[in-house]
Amino acid sequence: AGVATSSRRRGRGVLIAFIIAAIVGGAFTAWYFLAGPGAAVTIPTSIAGMTVEEATTELESLGFTVSAELGQIASTTIGVDLVAQTDPPLGSAARTGTEVQLLVSIGPRLLAVPAFVGMTEEQATAEIRAAPFTLLEVVGQFSGDVAAGIVIDALAGDRNGTSLTGVAEYGELEPITLIVSAGPLPDLLGLSVEDATERLQDAGLRAGAIFENEFSDTVPQGSVLRAQAVEGASVVRVGDVVDLVTSLGVEQVEIPDVIDLTWAEAKPILQEAGFDLEYNLFADAAPNLFTVTSLDPDEGTSAPRGSTVKVGFSA
Description:
rod-shaped, 30% strand, four-stranded mixed sheet, 5 helices, alpha/beta
């Protein structure tokens, strides 16, 4: 009986020791994986956009080691030389002590730039989306040489950007502004300033200064000759202000005083002044023998350039 009792006691001791060992082992395992060296920690996405030094400090504080060798990756959202990704990836879980490599941004991936000039607006838009780039804006530009709806140029960024014509590569998803022909400037010839202003508004333009500084043989004084780009501007785009040039009418020229001159002397003077001449054609046969005695209209008065002056002679 004593031997049996002793055996039972030893069995219970072994069982208790086993249970204690299992509890201790489980606790150690739980500590190792949950709080100890084997614990999994998420690589924080918040380090995206940090400098290498900032990201290194953040990762080391979480128990990771950081590789001395930097990697590179293209990014459309993270500035050049800032952390854009990691290996293992951002947001993934890794055990503390894991070596993490930082991947710094080299900027957007460079893509081939299509030959936009000469495409229709629809074709160019499709090419931008397919690349992919980002279509920022479509700007109408008036042109007498390019049909309406045809691309004149493509610009990097906004309407003040540099031309992409002839550029081989451009960054993925980077903005592009298309410059598309709006056809020629509206024809304003002979309109009143008021009517010309309305026509400009219909075309998406605004009237600015009015310059009455050109003569016209066909357009009455005060009527519009044309619209033109404001001083300093080389192109006119939809939404711009343009200046109006109005007519001074037919140029008035003073009739030269050629009385008492020979026809040989008087004729070239009157012609250079811009007048048509009505006279006795026999004077051309002996111009040095004919002397001018009268003009109609009179010398010293003004008449429209190109009008007729009657010449009288004495021989």
